[in-house]
Structures are given as structure tokens and as C-alpha cells.
Design brief:
- By secondary structure, the protein is an alpha+beta fold.
- The protein is 30% helix and 10% strand.
- Helix 2 crosses helix 13, helix 10 runs antiparallel to helix 14 and helix 12 packs antiparallel against helix 13.
- It is globular, with a radius of gyration of 28 Å.
- The strands form four sheets. Strands 2, 4, 6, 7, 8, 10 and 11 form a seven-stranded mixed β-sheet that branches. A three-stranded antiparallel β-sheet has the order 3-5-9.
- The longest helix has 30 residues.
Length: 614
């Protein structure tokens, strides 16, 4: 009976097969209250209907597992997994370089005692808003090398109190018209303005004017490394040092070699590649505003439909949604301290990533390590058992002693997915344990986060439970007493189904922890993603279209601005000698792919060493 049921499940014949009829034998007892409150009408949860058509018996109101069918994939327009992954990636350089168009705005603070750095051509504090870096390798590239006299004044500041900041995720300091500045545009000007991508002076001035009423001290962004658009260089900070240092951009020697200082910025940015990322900014996720919130920004749902995540941006946001986003952010900035649940949402998300990321990767590796068309039974069976062990490890805390596929006859009206009904208690317990007992999610942002975590873990548990259940029916789970000998055809069909399931799940999740250099880079190399501005298109026009009442021309200002007499650079110096020429496009600039690059060059330092010196 089980063999016939498994065959029907694998080949997808549904009601045409005499599938095994199996009862639900596990009782979960009274269910806990839902996470926080029910989502407000309009938000598309991953488990909302309509699902893809799955057929099957109609759900009965009294069935506690009616909404936990293993054949129901997520709603095609759901975004909970995208909220999950982008929040998991906040303040991390690697994922925000790979997916550079940010979709989150988050309030936060820079703690007391944090050092900030600013490069300039004169020994004077900026009289108004300007840029500061978190790493000196970043700030020094703006203080010299573009002037003939090579003056380079390097300011070091220390925060004397927590600075209130707003963080824009993605590569939000990249001056591109392709989406990196969209979220800032909406807060700054109320609409997306790709033609104003180089109006940095207008951007920082308008943002600081707007933020003043909410006591915002600055805005955190990322390019080669992280920076803060600091609104006032005399409020909440003190001067630690302000020396005139040796120009770090031009290295003076006989060959007039140009020191590859830009690469050092990229290297400094790589220190913040992975979790926990840039730790000198502390985010308040209870005030998160996400453009993936389908209730807050419904106009972007059709704009994203059918597009890859690389191409998601905010161009088609409606005026009403843009106003609502700004109002939500202002509400978060105005909220009194302590008005949140106290849940550490970042830690909760990391629990899911840490528990499943490597195991899912191992499962995918095992399924791609054998030829499912092989006629070597021992090889196919061996990899199937190894895979089943990994699946069971993931579900171990949720497999009750009464969970077993006990057959009670045949029913031609049951679908292929119904043969796994006995595993639905495992699916539900796996999907709800992490969030069901959470209470007092007092902000709309926390409700959004709770839904995102639950929707993401739900799909992981659905796919893993389905795969594990098929292995049980095939007779390869050593902990289930199934009287069945595995046969070659069943194994091959199951392995193909497993491979499709794991590939679809991992593509849907698209976790950046899986994006890495393989094989690993050597000691003198680093893993690298094409990073703005090297390898990107040159801007055709740097001045923005004037706005009414603002004059005929507004001078663009680069980060940590250079004087008017200096030429504005269009491309940062090439970060490694054997890289591309200035202005040459990187092949993967639109969809960055990991690769190893050299990070140590003796001749980069302009040092001529003879063998006799050793």
C-alpha cells in the first residue's frame, strides 16, 4: 500500500492512483494564541490564498490541520521571505552589495564613544551637513590626491552621546539611476528621481532639514564601506584630532606610482561583510519601514510581478503609498522609547538562518552528488539515506511518537499530496514553534517582522517535511518501522523530486549566506563582488533638473566634498593592478557574482626590491 502511495506521489498522478489512505494519528492539543494580532487587511502573507491549485478534499472547519497541506506552496505575490532576508542582511556589506537596491528604512543610533572620520582639503570643520566615514580607509580618499599641493586634512570625531540616525539599506550611497537611491528619494522628495542621482548636496540638505524636527542627527548609507551623512559637526561629537597627513592617494617615488588606496576602502568594507555587519550602528527594528510590506505599499505588488529580485525597485510607487511610507517613518521616529515588545528580531531571524542554512546546503550538495539515472543501486540508495538523515535532523524536535504512516485502505479520490497527511502535524509544529508564543508585538513593524519570520519558516518546514515524508514512504528512514524494501525506480523518482524541491526552496529563499567564492580564496586573495563605482557605467549628467524656485542650477556635491577647483572624479582608481581599465564595465555589474581577487601586490607600494637585499 505504501509503495503504491509513494509511486502516485512521485509521478503526480493524483486521483488516478489508488493512493494510501492514512489517518491523522497525532493530537497537538489546544493551540496557543496567534503571534501578536492578526495582520491588518491587505497584507499578503506567504500562506494566504489563493494558492496554486492543488486539488484534494475540501477543508473542514473543525480540522485543526486544514491549512497545513503539504501541497500548498506560498502565494506567488507574498514578500515575507524577502522581508526576512533583507532584515537578516541589514548593515552587512556583502548582501547589500549583491542586492544593491534597498527596500528598508530603519531608525537607529550610533553609540557614545564611536569614532567617525572626515577627509577634507582645509583645517576647518564643515559649517553644515557633510559626510563622515566609520573607517579611516574610507575617509582619506576624499581628503587628497585631487589637489596639486596634496593637502590632506583628516578629522577624527568621537560621539559624546548616542546619535539618532536613519539607515537606508542596499548600496544606498551609490550614485546610480538604477534604484540604489529610490528609498532616499521618496523620503527626500516624495518621489523617485533617477535624474537627480548626483544631487548629493540637495539630498543631504533636505534630509537634514526634514529630520531636525525628529531629532535626527544623520543618515547611514553604504558604498565601498559605511558612511553617515552627518547633519551637524558640532552637535553630539567632539574633535579628537585634525592632522595634516601625508597624501594617501599619491605615493611619491621615482616611478610616481599611484597607491591603490581605493582597494583599501573595499577591504575595510569587507570587514562588515557578514553578520553582525557594521556594529557601530544599532538599529531599532520595532520602527522598520519596508517597501516589501504589501499592506503599506500595495502599488509595488504589480510592479514586481514576474521580475527577478535584482530588478526590484520603487519606480512605480503611487503618490498615496509614498506619503504613507513617510508617515510611517515619522511615526516610528516620534514614538516614545520603550514602546515595543522587547523581542530581539535580529536574533530570532539568525536562529532560523543558523539552523537551516548549512543543512539545506548539505542536502542540495548530496542530491547533486549522484546521478539519479545511475544503475548502481548502492550509490543511489546510499545518497538517499544520507539525505534522509539530514532531513530528519532538521525535523527532529517536531516528530511525535505517534507520527506514522499507518495505512487503512485505498481511496481513489485522494490526491498525491494526501498520502502525506500523516506528516502534517510535523509540518505545523515545525512552522509554528518559533513564533506562536510571542506576544505584545506593539508596533506595525513588529507585526510585519513576525509575519515574515513565520512565513519563511513555514515554507522551509513544508518542503523539508514533504521530502522527509517521501523518504519514510520509500522505506529509507531508519527510525520508522516501514515494512518495505527500497526499489531502484522508486529511489530514482524520489531523488529527482527531492532535487526539484530543494532547488526551488533555496531559490525562493535566496539567502546571501550561500553566496561565496568556491573554492575558497587564498591567503593573498579576498572574495569580492563588483562594488560601485569601479566597473559601473559613467554618469552622463551630474547636475539635476532644477526644481521650481530653486534657481537655474544646483551644484552637485560628492561625499566628503572636494573644492570647486578640483575635477570631480567619474571613476574611483582601480583597486587592483590587474583589474579593468578606468571606465570599463564589469561583466557582472548588474548581477554581481563572487570571485577571488588579489589583495597583496608588492609593486603596488612603489618599492623596488633587489634579490640581493635578502
Amino acid at each position: 500500500m505504501l509503495q503504491r502511495a509513494l509511486c502516485c506521489t512521485l509521478v503526480g498522478l493524483g486521483a488516478l492512483c489508488h493512493a494510501a489512505q492514512v489517518p491523522i494519528v497525532s493530537d497537538l492539543g489546544p493551540q496557543p494564541t496567534s503571534v501578536c494580532e492578526a495582520p491588518e487587511q491587505g497584507r499578503l502573507l506567504s500562506f494566504d490564498k489563493p494558492h496554486y491549485a492543488t486539488g484534494g478534499l475540501p477543508a473542514e472547519d473543525h480540522d485543526p490541520l486544514a491549512d497545513w497541506r503539504l501541497g500548498d506552496p506560498p502565494n506567488v505575490n507574498s514578500t515575507g521571505h524577502l522581508i526576512f532576508e533583507t532584515v537578516s542582511s541589514l548593515l552587512q556589506h556583502w548582501p547589500n552589495t549583491r542586492m544593491r537596491n534597498g527596500h528598508n528604512i530603519v531608525p537607529g543610533t550610533i553609540p557614545t564613544g564611536t569614532l567617525l572620520y572626515h577627509g577634507t582639503w582645509q583645517p576647518e570643520l564643515p559649517p553644515g551637513p557633510d559626510w563622515a566615514a566609520f573607517d579611516p580607509e574610507h575617509s582619506v580618499i576624499f581628503c587628497g590626491g585631487l589637489l596639486k599641493d596634496g593637502k590632506c586634512w583628516h578629522l577624527t570625531l568621537m560621539t559624546t552621546r548616542p546619535l539618532n540616525v536613519v539607515y537606508f539599506d542596499g548600496t544606498s550611497a551609490a550614485k546610480l539611476s538604477t534604484g540604489t537611491l529610490d528609498s532616499q528619494d521618496i523620503v527626500t522628495w516624495g518621489d523617485v528621481r533617477p535624474d537627480w542621482s548626483f544631487d548629493e548636496w540637495g539630498r543631504i540638505s533636505t534630509l537634514c532639514d526634514w529630520g531636525r524636527k525628529y531629532n535626527v542627527d544623520g543618515f547611514v548609507r553604504m558604498e565601498m564601506s559605511f558612511e553617515v551623512m552627518l547633519c551637524n559637526f558640532t552637535s553630539g561629537v567632539l574633535v579628537v584630532s585634525f592632522p595634516n597627513i601625508v597624501d594617501p592617494v599619491i605615493f611619491r617615488n621615482a616611478s610616481n606610482t599611484r597607491f591603490p588606496i581605493t582597494f583599501e576602502v573595499v577591504y575595510a568594507g569587507s570587514w562588515h561583510n557578514r553578520y553582525p555587519g557594521e556594529t557601530r550602528v544599532q538599529l531599532d527594528l520595532s520602527g522598520l519601514v519596508s517597501f516589501y510590506d504589501t499592506e503599506l505599499v500595495p502599488s509595488l505588488v504589480p510592479a514586481r510581478f514576474g521580475k527577478e529580485r535584482w530588478d526590484h525597485r520603487l519606480l512605480n510607487i503611487s503618490t498615496e503609498d509614498a506619503v504613507r511610507v513617510k508617515a510611517r517613518l515619522e511615526e516610528a521616529l516620534s514614538r516614545p522609547a520603550g514602546r515595543s515588545s522587547g523581542v530581539d528580531w535580529q536574533a530570532l531571524i539568525r536562529v532560523v538562518v543558523d539552523r537551516y542554512s548549512e543543512r539545506l546546503q548539505v542536502v542540495q550538495y548530496l542530491l547533486n552528488s549522484t546521478d539519479t539515472n545511475s544503475h548502481e543501486p548502492d550509490s543511489v540508495l546510499g545518497y538517499a539515506i544520507k539525505t534522509q538523515v539530514q532531513l530528519r535532523h532538521m525535523l527532529m524536535p517536531y516528530i511525535g511518537v505517534n507520527v506514522t504512516p499507518r495505512s487503512t485502505g485505498a481511496n481513489v479520490n485522494r490526491t498525491a499530496s494526501d498520502v502525506l497527511d500523516w506528516a502534517r502535524p510535523v509540518y505545523k509544529l515545525c512552522a509554528t514553534t518559533l513564533t506562536d508564543r510571542l506576544k505584545d508585538c506593539t508596533t506595525s513593524s513588529e507585526k510585519l517582522l513576525s509575519d515574515a519570520v513565520q512565513g519563511t519558516i513555514r515554507e522551509i518546514c513544508r518542503v523539508v517535511t514533504k521530502m522527509w515524508g517521501l523518504g519514510v514512504l520509500a522505506g529509507i528512514d531508519q527510525f520508522m518501522d516501514i515494512e518495505r524494501e527500497p526499489d531502484m525506480e522508486t529511489m530514482q523518482n524520489m531523488m529527482k523530486t527531492w532535487r526539484e524541491d530543494i532547488d526551488e526552496l533555496m531559490a525562493w529563499l535566496d539567502w546571501n549566506v550561500w553566496v561565496e567564492c568556491r573554492p575558497e580564496c587564498g591567503p593573498e586573495e579576498m572574495c569580492y563582488l563588483t562594488t560601485w563605482p569601479t566597473g559601473f557605467p559613467l554618469p552622463h549628467e551630474r547636475t539635476r533638473i532644477p526644481r521650481p524656485g530653486k534657481g537655474d542650477h544646483v551644484r552637485p556635491l560628492t561625499p566628503q566634498s572636494i573644492p570647486d577647483s578640483a575635477p570631480v572624479p567619474t571613476v574611483t582608481p582601480v583597486p587592483w593592478l590587474d583589474g579593468m581599465a578606468d571606465g570599463e564595465l564589469a561583466e557582472d555589474w548588474q548581477r554581481p557574482q563572487p570571485r577571488c581577487i588579489r589583495r597583496i601586490h608588492l609593486h603596488d607600494l612603489g618599492v623596488r626590491v633587489k634579490a640581493s637585499h635578502f
